[in-house]
């Protein structure tokens, strides 16, 4: 009896998830094999750049143990409110809604000491019980690796596609190859690979220094016959902007153009679908 009722609850939740996902044109999971390669930075900026172009975007942080989206967007006091039985996403702008586990913590520095089933439960709830509304893009930022969080997304969001972030050095690329194999195993198409921290242009001499090497992400994409979406250099401005809760869009360096190029490449790879009601641009 208990088992039946929990099965029924799961089925009811599945229905809610499916009815939300039917109203989302493109679902993108941003993954990396290795930690600290800039996955949250890229996920956040993809969401901001797309929403600035007028697309309706939802940004979901499923990095339960190390959520950083709220900080990168300057939403340090982010709280998720509820109306009835639904969470209300944070409206970063007219076109960008944000949900992060951070919004449920009493203290921002509280650690979450959760095992798999609890994490799976909260991710499903963020898909079932959030008042997202119709979206052109749902961008999901996952923790590094191939654990519970990306697996839950892959199993729950049936037409999700992956964008894999790497840095150019071999130790990161070895983990990217695992991410690619993971995507194959769970039948999640890879939209492309982005190489972050790809070279550093010295502000004094203007020369490019390949601190973590350069080109490894592009080569891995070619080796696996996957699209290469572009690269971002090591840019101290990215750190300063991220720490100040600002997007790459506020930078004056070439990094902004590189990010725009990545967004254009991504849009090229996607089948065009009718856009949700578009607004002029972000208001944040
Ligand atoms: N292109 C870049 N140039 C300079 N710094 C960068 C760049 N990209 C990201 N960073 C910085 O690197 C740090 C890690 O970035 P971020 O949090 O996005 O990585 P992550 O892969 O999501 O990390 P985690 O594994 O903890 O989830 C941040 O301080 C960020 O500002």
UniProtKB/TrEMBL annotation:
<keyword id="KW-0408">Iron</keyword>
<comment type="subunit">
    <text>Homodimer.</text>
</comment>
<dbReference type="InterPro" id="IPR019591">
    <property type="entry name" value="Mrp/NBP35_ATP-bd"/>
</dbReference>
<dbReference type="InterPro" id="IPR033756">
    <property type="entry name" value="YlxH/NBP35"/>
</dbReference>
<protein>
    <recommendedName>
        <fullName>Iron-sulfur cluster carrier protein</fullName>
    </recommendedName>
</protein>
<keyword id="KW-0411">Iron-sulfur</keyword>
<keyword id="KW-0547">Nucleotide-binding</keyword>
<feature type="domain" description="AAA+ ATPase">
    <location>
        <begin position="25"/>
        <end position="187"/>
    </location>
</feature>
<keyword id="KW-0479">Metal-binding</keyword>
<dbReference type="InterPro" id="IPR000808">
    <property type="entry name" value="Mrp-like_CS"/>
</dbReference>
<comment type="function">
    <text>Binds and transfers iron-sulfur (Fe-S) clusters to target apoproteins. Can hydrolyze ATP.</text>
</comment>
<comment type="similarity">
    <text>Belongs to the Mrp/NBP35 ATP-binding proteins family.</text>
</comment>
<feature type="binding site">
    <location>
        <begin position="33"/>
        <end position="40"/>
    </location>
    <ligand>
        <name>ATP</name>
    </ligand>
</feature>
<keyword id="KW-0067">ATP-binding</keyword>
<keyword id="KW-0378">Hydrolase</keyword>
<dbReference type="InterPro" id="IPR027417">
    <property type="entry name" value="P-loop_NTPase"/>
</dbReference>
<dbReference type="Pfam" id="PF10609">
    <property type="entry name" value="ParA"/>
</dbReference>
<dbReference type="InterPro" id="IPR003593">
    <property type="entry name" value="AAA+_ATPase"/>
</dbReference>
